[in-house]
Amino acid sequence: MTQSSAPGKIILFGEHAVVYGRPALAIPVTQVHTDVDISDSSRAGIWIDAPNVNLHAELNTLPSDHPIASVINNLFFLARISPFPNLEIKISSTIPVASGLGSGAAVTVALTRALSSHLNFSMTDEAVNAFTYEIEKLHHGTPSGIDNTVVTYAKPVYFIKRLPSPDRRGAGGKVETFKVGGPFIIVIGDTGISAPTKESVSDVRKLWEADQAKWENVFDKVGEIVNQSRQAIESGNWEMLGELMDKNHSLLQEMTVSSRELDQLVKAARNAGALGAKLSGGGRGGNMIALVKPETAESVSLSLKEAGAKNTIITRVS
Ligand code: PMV
Q1: Nearest atom, ligand 1, residue 161 CA
Q2: How distant, in Å, are the alpha carbons of 22, 98, 147, 168 from that of 164?
């Protein structure tokens, strides 16, 4: 049997502006993960068992654009695997779907690594990242590439999207991992509202199209916040990092991607003693994050639940 696991991820700073070439910071969330087990099968076909999405089927019975089928078919094409072997594939995940925690990228990364290792088709991290980006593009249109990057490398990343150019392929961006000056704690609060990232990205695009000068300026401000945040993380300046979170949230509100529920959770976290808080990811629903001191982590988490969070995760970044 071959096994592989990939973590969830959360964006700390820079969502949306990252689509317009500004940097963003994101971290892996190891408390949640996708796990894939592959073994040879005695029955014909490739049998997929993914209870979280209620999938129990043979590969050929799935539509070709099915997310899991597209990973298997594209990878076998890339690796020139023919005829297809008989396999049992089990996929289980604790990453909530469509909530900005990178569940899609984690399934692709874990499945790709398990398949390539089971079939002795070696892939570097760069190759896994580039392949996952291609799969993300099939399902999400024009992703910046930040999800696949954090999930593949499972490290904090500073990411700048590669600007489109016809002769450029690859994982979609410039990636730097960075050192954390000391451990810090993030509480993630889930609104429980699933909001397609595609829609908020497209709404921001409409704003930008209507007044490019204004929005380029807003994105520049976000870019500055991201660079200052990286410095604050590297030097362990948590007070400053909290303030930067609040500033980034205000700019996201200006982009119209916050919501009443997200604002409510952000406010509850700040009132409970968080150093700063903001929405994370596409917005309109999904998750928010709060930077907390170790001694307030539990009380901020509790306040988030009282203010309507469906779930919270306390994650330590080091
Ligand atoms: O909702 P998430 O966590 O997948 O993040 C989306 C981040 C955006 O910047 C809004 C879009 C992107 O592709 O980077």
Answers
A1: 14
A2: 14, 26, 18, 7
